[in-house]
Specification:
The complex is a heterodimer of chains A (300) and B (439). Chain A has one domain (3-286): ABC transporter involved in vitamin B12 uptake, BtuC (Orthogonal Bundle). Chain A is built from 12 helices and 2 strands. Chain A is 73% helix and 3% strand. Chain B has 2 domains: 24-160 and 304-387, Response regulator (Rossmann fold, 3-Layer(aba) Sandwich); 162-302 and 389-430, Rossmann fold (3-Layer(aba) Sandwich). Chain B is 45% helix and 18% strand. Chain B has helices at 3-21, 42-64, 93-106, 118-131, 144-147, 162-174, 190-206, 226-235, 246-258, 261-264, 276-279, 297-302, 307-321, 327-350, 357-364, 414-417, 425-430; strands spanning 30-37, 81-88, 111-114, 135-137, 154-156, 181-185, 211-216, 239-242, 266-269, 288-290, 368-371, 374-380, 385-387, 390-398, 403-412. Classes of the chains: A mainly alpha (300), B alpha/beta (439). The interface between A and B is large, with 41 and 37 residues.
Chain lengths: 300, 439
């Protein structure tokens, strides 16, 4: 396999993972207008929850049907969305709707710090391993290189997530209601839309996607404290490139970051980190709102 | 009650209160140590907590007395009961300087033993000298502590990191491993960068014809190494060097072995033993692996004169924590046994009193003692920096017993893999290891 093909495959694998992590962040911003720093913690909670559930699964005879561990991964993300999402949205964030965006960033940053300690209280500081799902799908040989089948499953999951979010927003009644709330929440409320419920639903969906990103990552890493810190930084780069609030933007941003990073690792490893933020800076030079965000008139 | 009696009673009460408030450190029947290591954060599971656990096991045995073989039969330190104040190393250098001052000035500890992070070691050393507080750096690896500074009250009881990579290169040569080219994947901070520089410098001397291929430095905590592994697979280097530790090493090994990197290139890990208890049989066979000293499995396999001391501590640790001791407890043991030796030496010279910081520092300078990791000699930096023997081995899973073993272990004398006094690590590597005593 030549170098270009290797870069494309590596870039796609990384972009698939990155998109799942980023799309929830952009969805929450699009609907709630909150830049959720705690998204990284929700990712980490998803990783811990999936590690726990898969561990329980295999401790209770899961070896007989190892494929069931994939259901445990998804179930973990659902549980995190059902439990943590409402607690954060109903218990805290709703009190800050309509307030200054900087204040919301500080509030979610505080949540991020609190959740980091909460995770240590619940799961301790020792690592968790759930490598079984990682090896179940076998290897894929592409040219002279072997890839793990699981990596391509993550790409498939990213495509399913992307299509699911896009179709829900653009092809369903509920999606149109959400778009109406994004466009003008006050007008939507006067038209009888239950806006708080839409906010709650959007935040739970964002939480699910963050947790799903963590759950799908858990089998290929050791789940340890501090997991969410690195993720939130690169996820921000992706949504800023694509445009805050844009689902197609998150997909394009993830692809740009994934492929440029892969090219850098293969060709100029010293610039691996630099290249991500260089791409972001170039995009912002020409499109300060990001690639897909609509330019808005400033409200005075 | 007369006024005089009342005043006398009040005075007695105040005296009693003052007596009760007097720190234990001031008592001559206890020796108070501040132990600082990572109890939270990424380094806790790999280094901090195992080191603290190892310290607890050793101190319990010392306080009971007679549990260890000679010369460590005397109770505590020179008969004094050892008391420990634990401090979490997490939080950065500024916080650690404050914690250090608290330990010395408020807790009034008799000695400080601590620091995994090289950044914390560099920050603490000048403060220790300013406060004239006897301090042992037990773990951190950067050679810069004493190569760029000089401290009267600071001692490091473990060899610095240059030894790890010189030993790896010597191991390859000792096993006649053919190296046409080598690549690396190390964490992108001082530890990873310095380790790669040391390994590269060692290879340049021992395998001068080997081609240096890609050197990758993913950020600390990267987690995903898919692209890096593709790059390493494409390179087809004879070997891939990594000094990664903790979750980064575990993640790299899980992903790399799933893609067969260990079958295409020889994996060479500078400090990899500490992930064996977590990975178990997920750690592939045939990896060349060091433990930053004759520590962990390499110490167990060594036998010899130190076998009784090693086995006693090994068994106590295993019984208490249901895991075998990896490198971190060994470094804590060598620090505490060195401190015990220094305290008892100082007491022999001052008439049996508890030694002060100056007496301790004088006793520690140039000291040598036996530890489970071998003979520790404070041979560098005017007697403030230790050298110690090292070992590298090859992983092999014992299916019958369900545990990892190290086979083909090569042991290197301290003066073979550590630079001599008066030269920096980089000068020593560049000059081709002058003064190395390997026979």
């Amino acid at each position: 396999m030549d170098l270009v093909a290797t870069i494309l495959v590596d870039g796609l694998i990384y972009a698939g993972w990155l998109f799942i992590v980023s799309v929830g962040l952009t969805l929450v911003f699009g609907v709630l207008n909150i830049l959720n720093i705690a998204h990284g913690s929700l990712y980490a909670i998803g990783a811990y929850a999936s590690a726990t559930l898969v561990g329980i699964y295999f401790a209770n005879g899961g070896d007989a049907i190892p494929w069931g561990s994939y259901a445990a991964l998804i179930l973990a993300a659902v549980l995190v969305a059902l439990v943590v999402g409402p607690i954060l949205e109903r218990g805290l964030l709703r009190f800050f709707y309509g307030r200054d965006e900087v204040l919301n960033v500080l509030v979610t940053y505080a949540v991020f710090l609190i959740l980091e300690d909460v995770m240590k209280l619940i799961w301790g500081v020792n690592p968790y391993f759930v490598y079984e799902p990682y090896t179940l799908l076998g290897d894929v040989e592409i040219g002279p290189l072997f890839y793990v089948g699981y990596d391509f499953a993550v790409i498939a999951a990213a495509i399913i997530v992307g299509l699911g979010v896009w179709l829900t927003l653009n092809r369903t009644r509920m999606g149109k209601v959400v778009l109406a709330v994004i466009h003008d929440s006050e007008m939507s409320q006067t038209m009888g839309v239950n806006v708080p419920r839409i906010y709650l639903g959007a935040f739970m969906a964002g939480t699910f996607l963050a947790a799903l990103g963590g759950a799908l990552t858990a089998p290929m890493i050791s789940v340890t404290p501090g997991l969410g810190v690195n993720v939130i930084i690169v996820a921000f780069a992706v949504v800023i490139i694509g445009g805050l609030g844009s689902v197609p933007g998150a997909a394009i941003g993830a692809l740009m970051v994934g492929i440029s990073r892969a090219a850098s690792v293969h060709l100029l490893p010293e610039a691996e980190l630099f290249i991500i933020y260089f791409v972001m800076a170039v995009v912002l030079m020409f499109r300060p709102e990001g690639l897909f965000a609509k330019t808005q008139a400033r409200k005075i | 009650m007369t006024t005089k009696t009342k005043i006398g009673g009040a005075f007695a009460a105040l005296t009693l209160a003052a007596g009760l408030a007097t720190p234990a450190a001031a008592q001559d029947d206890t020796f108070k140590i501040g132990v600082i290591t990572f109890l939270s954060g990424q380094a806790a599971e790999s280094f901090g907590v195992p080191a603290l656990n190892g310290g607890k096991v050793l101190i319990d045995m010392l306080n009971q007395g007679g549990q260890l073989p000679a010369p460590y039969t005397q109770k505590g330190f020179g008969g004094m009961t050892i008391e420990v104040v634990e401090v979490d190393e997490a939080g950065g250098a500024t916080k650690q300087v404050q914690e250090f001052r608290n330990l010395v000035q408020r807790e009034e500890v008799d000695a400080v033993v601590g620091y995994v992070s090289s950044g914390n070691c560099l920050a603490i050393a000048p403060v220790a000298d300013e406060l004239k507080a006897f301090t042992i750096l037990y773990d951190c690896g950067t050679p810069r502590v004493f190569e760029t500074g000089s401290f009267d009250y600071v001692f490091r009881t473990a060899a610095h990191a240059t030894m790890d990579n010189v030993s790896l290169a010597r191991y390859l040569k000792a096993r006649d491993f053919p190296v046409e080219s080598f690549a690396g994947l190390n964490q992108d901070y001082a530890w990873g960068q310095d380790s790669w520089a040391d390994f590269k410098g060692s290879m340049a001397q021992i395998y001068p014809d080997a081609e240096e291929k890609t050197a990758l430095f993913p950020k600390f905590g990267a987690g995903q190494y898919g692209t890096e592994i593709s790059a390493l697979l494409r390179e087809r280097a004879s070997l891939v060097h990594s000094s990664n530790w903790g979750g980064d090493l575990q993640g790299f090994l899980l992903q790399a072995t799933a893609r067969g990197l260990h079958e295409r290139s020889q994996l060479v890990l500078a400090a990899g033993d500490h992930v064996i208890p977590q990975l178990q049989d997920k750690m592939p066979d045939g990896i060349f692996l060091g433990a930053r000293g004759v520590n962990g499995l390499a110490a167990k396999a060594r036998g010899g004169e130190l076998a009784e001391l090693t086995d006693t501590l090994w068994n106590a640790y295993e019984a208490e924590y249901e895991a075998f001791p990896v490198q971190a407890p060994f470094r804590m043991w060598q620090a505490l046994l060195g401190l015990k030796t220094a305290v008892e030496k100082a007491m022999a010279e001052n008439g049996g009193k508890k030694p002060n910081d100056e007496e301790l520092a004088a006793a520690m300078e140039g000291l040598a003692w036996d530890a489970p990791s071998g003979r520790i000699e404070m041979a560098l930096a005017g007697g403030h920096q230790a050298i110690q023997p090292n070992a590298i081995g090859t992983t092999k899973w014992n299916e019958a017993e369900g545990r990892m073993e190290l086979v083909d272990v090569e042991y290197f004398a301290a003066r073979c893999v550590n630079p001599p006094e008066g030269t920096t690590s980089q000068e020593w590597l560049a000059a081709g290891f002058p003064g190395a005593q390997c026979d």
